[in-house]
Design brief:
The structure holds 2 protein chains of 2 kinds. Chain A is α+β, with helices and mostly antiparallel strands. Chain A has 12 helices and 12 strands. Among the domains of chain A are: about 120 residues, Uridine Diphospho-n-acetylenolpyruvylglucosamine Reductase, domain 3; about 100 residues, CO dehydrogenase flavoprotein, C-terminal domain (Enolase-like, domain 1, 2-Layer Sandwich). Chain A has a 5-stranded antiparallel beta sheet with strand order 4-5-8-6-7. Chain A has a 4-stranded antiparallel beta sheet with strand order 9-10-11-12, with helices on both faces. Chain A has a 3-stranded parallel beta sheet with strand order 1-3-2, with no helix packed on it. Chain B is α+β, with helices and mostly antiparallel strands. Among the domains of chain B are: about 180 residues, Aldehyde Oxidoreductase, domain 3; about 200 residues, 2-Layer Sandwich (Aldehyde Oxidoreductase, domain 4); about 140 residues, Aldehyde Oxidoreductase, domain 4, CATH 3.30.365. Classes of the chains: A alpha+beta, B alpha+beta. The structure holds flavin-adenine dinucleotide (FAD) and iron/sulfur cluster. The site of iron/sulfur cluster has 14 residues of chain A, from loops.
């Protein structure tokens, strides 16, 4: 790898001012960034280590909900009692992502800011819409694991499988910088993750100098039943090929339910049409059938990833059965 | 000395006498019922603690004084010609000590796959070497490429090879007189083509006359070896002599290459050290270009160079198991007897065609066979022997054909069907063991509307590896009672070190703990390469023979000093005993102290040939149980029963470990492993361990290993190898189990969620349409 300097700022202001452009990346757990540096995918002169900054490493309860500091490790999120009780789908997802070793290093801030795993993007010498060029190698190339929705500009999938769950819970991302106009802001998760149409070069709504300081989970959480289901080849050290998050709210037919698909599109895909089907009836076989019929709508599979449509149908059925309390399969 | 003796050979309750003529001063094999103290015991491998605690030093870990770091620059193009290379800027970079180009060194300016070696550089630090490597300026003439078997076979595909070489070339039946890179003599070729046409007609007729004919077209994907320790060596020159700490499965082969003209190294002397090897699986027989490059860079630099491949170099260019397309038709009669088999198969071993074949006609009595095999050239890294080369892919096709044939005749159970067409005496028993332990006859949820379906599948293996000549062992008994056994061959993780010591301990009548072993050093007596699963069969007879003669010398000393009859003495349980079993009052150590000299040293070579023995082949049967999630296509292998035999079992624990390793790699081949090549630039996209998926520990099935002990009689230790056979059947058994579970066959491995969902969908579609008459699975 190319040697680089490490800056160790003690405050958010310092850290922020060190990042004038994305050429100077922040580093948290380093499980994503260091791999990209080793492969010469990115060759920074300097990285800004966030770990000396105080106040980013705790999970706290406030009137507004639960605040997870950006530097809290994935494992600490997964085992935290407030998270497990209030937001079980998050605990389940984050506790099964990646591998135990990675979860011990990786942070929730890094998890939602990680770069796509597209194998073209992760090899030197492929310039595409995402890294400053134009076009997409995957669309007419090797795309078994790529997106089936919203893939016209860039067919990456959002690699964080925590992301769809955060969208489902209506979480917000707390962002800070030292630029006056920006100061501190909270961005709802469904606006934090960007689609390539919004900006092909960024996956999240961060500008240079902006640091994710926390993930905020809302206090008003009317979830009655939840399910997170995903499919992947291997149970560990592997990535989801598709996931379905369903939050079923108290209030049944009048509830504001959530269905968010993961790993099938560049940003987590909230599906209001599916939410309406859930609200319209009972969680029974008819409902499953209606959801299965609908879920593939709008998909635009590429040459090698058409299987993700039946996979989503299958996951959708599992999700509803799980809401109904059927025990975990497999 | 030609002693004729009668021995008992066989297994279980099946033994028969066999007369053998002992050769080259050999000793008789152990006999059934003979009490053994060490051999046959479960012994943890001697280096287990060193390996798990990290004190074992692999080539990767060697740090001789002054060590600097080598890097290889590889072509980023799917197919290119190197026009020129400019090292000037690179040589001027900080820390650079030496550099070379591949066209100058190997007289090869083709870079026929992305990953092909182009130039190399060594510098003081890894970072400096990386930076300097990137400063090498190469002018490539980029050409069109074919990186998949389909692209290469397509009409009008760009030519991969040179001269007249076609992309698709028949490799069997062979036309005699074909020379390297040239096309066959047209006359000879025409004759072969005519013979092939005749054969096709004959077998066509046999199939036409069979009661049932089944057809299938199967695919397997490229599997890379992916050893945890990559290829390479740490090379150092000392007074004109080369020392290499090599990650190799052939210490002597590596040395031979370095001291020959090969690769311009021309070391007058070379010592290869390889105490621990982090996996090879068949890919580490040769020093490879990286070995030569390491030696040359070290010579120029005047300091030792570490030249180990990075993961990308390993995955793209250090070997693989070719993929395959296998089309088959099998004819079978109502009585269950196979009449004939037609096979057309294609495989892609890289830009060459060697090793393209799939062993898909080796195990059963298959009647008349008409088989034609083709090699397909692609712009991909070259194939190397990969654990049972050709066998797992052949087995995936043949074993599924066996199931399809069995199903095509009403009421024949796949296991019974195999028995009807299999004459191996050991396997006959093994089928029953596998059947019982996998729960073959248990009721299961299969197909239909269930979400999780379960199925079982069966497949067989075969191997031929009693070893052969080419090994000597040195046994040294010191006056203070220390015993050492030495051989220069390597232990690639198979347990060679441990079994060699066990055999010596048995023969010397002492516990294993009293024997120390030295291996992996070409200054020690010659030994085999670890290939064809022959290491143990080649090495242990030499070890036993050397130990035997060392014992005789020690007993002669005792007899002389005590005035006893040497023929009445033996060693057992670290005591000197008489033939009637009584103790002489002397311990092994007492006996050693009677020596006049410092030590007894005996060097013995293994007899070159093997005896007729009980069976020339290992058998083996595996059964797999899977669960398939019908909704997501995810397959989980729940259990594999692996019934294996390997002649006489020296150490059931290390033998079991070989079987487990084979099964794990086999399940991984069945479900995950595949090389993904980018059609655009011709590069491997998963040249890492993230997207090149390998079965992980949580995904491992329960592996139930059942070992059958066989008194094979083929050598004085009567051991057969076990490194390769256990991988042969696994993927096939898994594929059959998946078909059993989901009611439709997935004709391609790896059996990924994508393939399963596609198969289920196509099944639903065809179920909706009226079935073609006679159409089967
Ligand atoms: C084999 C493997 C399997 C994996 N499987 C999964 C999986 O199943 N599901 C899943 O979700 N993930 C998976 N991951 C990814 C893993 O979760 C991420 O690498 C990890 O979460 C990143 O966190 P980190 O703290 O190490 O980030 P870093 O590597 O330190 O940073 C990642 C990126 O985020 C930026 N960044 C980090 N923190 C901040 C911040 N506070 N503000 C602004 N920018 C920031 C960095 O600049 C960098 O660009 C897997 C990874 C591997 C290697
Ligand atoms: S999917 Fe996105 S990142 Fe990958 S090649 Fe296409 S544009 Fe680039």
């Amino acid at each position: 790898m190319k040697p680089f300097k490490v800056a160790l700022p003690g405050s958010i202001e310092q850290a922020s001012s060190l990042q004038q452009s994305f050429d100077v990346p922040f580093i948290a757990g380093g499980t994503d960034l260091l791999a990209r540096i080793k492969e010469y995918i990115t060759t920074p002169e300097m990285v800004v280590d966030l770990k000396r900054i105080g106040g980013l490493g705790e999970i706290t309860s406030t009137d507004h909900g639960v605040r997870i500091g950006a530097l809290v490790t994935m494992n600490d999120v997964a085992t935290n009692l407030q998270v497990r009780e209030g937001f079980p789908a998050l605990a389940e997802t984050i506790g099964n992502a990646a591998t135990p070793q990675i979860r011990n290093m990786a942070t929730i801030g890094g998890n939602i800011c990680q770069k796509p795993r597209c194998w073209y993007l992760r090899h030197e010498g492929y310039t595409c819409a995402k890294n400053g060029g134009s076009g997409c190698w995957a669309r007419e190339g090797e795309n078994e694991f790529h997106a089936i929705f919203g893939n016209q500009v860039c067919a990456m999938t959002q690699p964080s499988n925590v992301a769809p769950v955060l969208v489902a819970y209506g979480a917000s991302i707390e962002i800070q910088s030292n630029a006056e106009s920006l100061e501190k802001r909270e961005v709802p998760a469904d606006q934090f993750f960007l689609t390539p149409e919004q900006d092909p070069t960024r996956e999240v709504a961060l500008k240079p100098g902006e640091i994710v300081t926390a993930v905020l989970l809302p206090a008003k959480n009317r979830t009655e039943k939840w399910s997170y289901t995903e499919a992947r080849e291997k149970q560990s050290f592997d990535w989801a090929q598709a996931s379905v998050t369903v939050l079923y709210q108290r209030g049944g037919r009048r509830g504001d339910h959530r269905v968010v698909l993961g790993a099938v599109s560049p940003a987590p895909l909230r599906r209001a049409d599916l939410e309406q089907i859930i609200a319209a009836g009972d969680l029974d076989a008819d409902c499953i059938q209606a959801l299965q019929k609908k879920i593939g709508e709008g998909a635009n599979p590429l040459s090698q990833n058409g299987y993700k449509v039946p996979m989503l149908r299958g996951l959708m059925a599992k999700a509803i059965r799980k809401l109904n309390g059927e025990k975990k399969e497999g | 000395m030609a002693d004729e003796i009668t021995i008992q050979v066989g297994f279980g309750d099946q033994f028969h006498p066999l007369t053998v003529r002992l050769q080259d001063g050999d000793i008789p094999p152990w006999q059934p019922g003979q009490p053994l103290d060490v051999v046959g015991q479960r012994k943890p491998r001697l280096d287990a603690v060193a390996k798990v605690t990290g004190t074992a030093k692999f080539s990767q870990d060697q740090r001789p004084d002054g060590l600097i770091h080598g890097r290889i620059l590889r072509s980023p193009h799917g197919n290119a010609e190197i026009r020129s290379i400019d090292l000037t800027a690179a040589r001027a970079m900080p820390g650079v000590r030496s550099a070379l180009t591949v066209p100058d060194t190997f007289e090869d300016s083709t870079a026929r796959h992305a990953g092909a070696e182009v130039a190399a550089i060594a510098a003081d630090t890894e970072q400096q070497a990386d930076a300097a490597m990137r400063a090498i300026v190469v002018d490539y003439q980029v050409k069109e490429h074919c990186v998949t078997i389909d692209a290469s076979m397509a009409e009008g595909a760009p030519q991969v090879g040179r001269g007249e070489q076609k992309n698709v070339q028949r490799v069997s039946p062979r036309t005699r007189g074909r020379r390297r890179g040239q096309n066959a003599n047209p006359d000879a070729d025409r004759q072969v083509v005519e013979q092939m046409a005749r054969r096709e007609k004959e077998v066509d007729a046999i199939l036409a006359g069979s009661d049932s004919v089944v057809e299938g077209s199967f695919r397997t994907q490229v599997q890379t070896h992916a050893p945890l320790e990559t290829h390479g060596a740490v090379c150092s020159w000392e007074d004109g002599r080369l020392v290499c700490w090599a990650s190799t499965q052939a210490t002597f082969g590596f040395r031979g290459e370095m001291t020959s003209d090969w690769g311009q190294v021309k070391a007058s002397e070379c010592r290869v050290l390889s105490e621990y090897v982090g996996g090879g699986f068949g890919s580490k027989f040769s020093a490879g270009r990286e070995g030569v490059i390491g030696a040359l860079l070290a010579r120029e630099a005047g300091v030792p160079v570490k030249m180990m491949l990075d993961r990308s170099g390993e995955q793209t260019s250090a070997g693989n198991r070719p993929d395959s397309i296998q089309k088959m038709r099998m004819g079978v009669n109502k009585d269950g007897i196979i009449q004939g088999l037609q096979i057309r198969s294609w495989g892609t071993p890289g830009s060459g065609i060697g090793g393209a074949g799939a062993h898909n006609d080796g195990i059963y009595q298959l009647g008349e066979i008409d088989k034609v095999e083709y090699g397909v050239r692609t712009n991909c890294g070259g194939a190397k022997a990969h654990r049972a080369p050709g066998w797992p892919q052949g087995s995936v096709a043949l074993e599924q054909m066996m199931d399809m044939a069995a199903h095509s005749i009403d009421g024949i159970d796949p296991i019974e069907f195999r028995k009807m067409n299999d004459d191996h005496p050991i396997r006959a028993k093994e089928y029953d063991i596998a059947r019982e332990r996998i729960g073959w006859d248990r009721t299961r949820v299969r197909g239909g509307s269930a979400t999780i379906c379960s199925g079982v599948g069966i497949a067989s293996n075969l191997w031929f590896s009693a070893g052969g000549g080419g090994a000597s062992a040195l046994v040294r008994i010191a006056k203070d009672g220390a015993v050492e056994i030495r051989n220069g061959a390597q232990d690639i993780g198979t347990g060679t070190r441990t079994v060699m010591a066990m055999v010596a301990a048995e023969e010397l009548g002492i516990p294993l703990e009293m024997v120390s072993t030295r291996i992996g050093d070409t200054n020690d007596p010659q030994g085999p390469m670890s290939g064809g699963s022959t290491t143990i069969g080649t090495l242990t007879p030499a070890a036993r023979l050397a130990a035997h003669h060392a014992k005789k010398e020690l007993l002669a000393v005792v007899a002389e000093r005590k005035g006893w009859d040497p023929a009445d003495l033996d060693l057992r349980k670290a005591r000197v005993i008489r033939n009637d079993g009584s103790d002489t009052g002397l311990s092994f150590k007492d006996a050693c102290s009677l020596m006049d000299d410092d030590a007894i040293e005996v060097l013995k070579a293994r007899p070159r040939r093997n005896y007729a023995g009980f069976s020339d082949t290992n058998a083996g049967v595996q059964a797999a149980e899977v669960e398939v999630d019908m909704e997501t296509g995810v397959v989980r292998v729940k259990k594999v029963v692996a019934v294996a035999d390997a002649g006489k079992l020296i150490n059931p624990m290390t033998a079991e470990s070989q079987v487990r390793g084979g099964v794990i790699q086999g399940v991984s081949f069945a479900l995950h492993e595949r090389r993904i090549m980018d059609r655009h630039k011709g590069r491997m996209l998963n040249d890492d361990l993230e997207n090149y998926k390998i079965l992980g520990s949580v995904d491992c099935p329960e592996i139930d290993v059942v070992l059958v002990d066989v008194y094979n009689g083929k050598s004085n230790t009567q051991v057969m190898g076990l490194g390769e056979p256990p991988i042969v059947a696994t993927a096939a058994a898994v594929a059959n189990a998946v078909a059993d579970a989901i009611g439709v066959r997935v004709f391609e491995v790896p059996i990924t969620p994508r393939r399963v969902l596609e198969a289920i969908a196509s099944n639903e579609k065809s179920a909706a349409q009226p079935k073609k008459k006679g159409a089967r699975l």
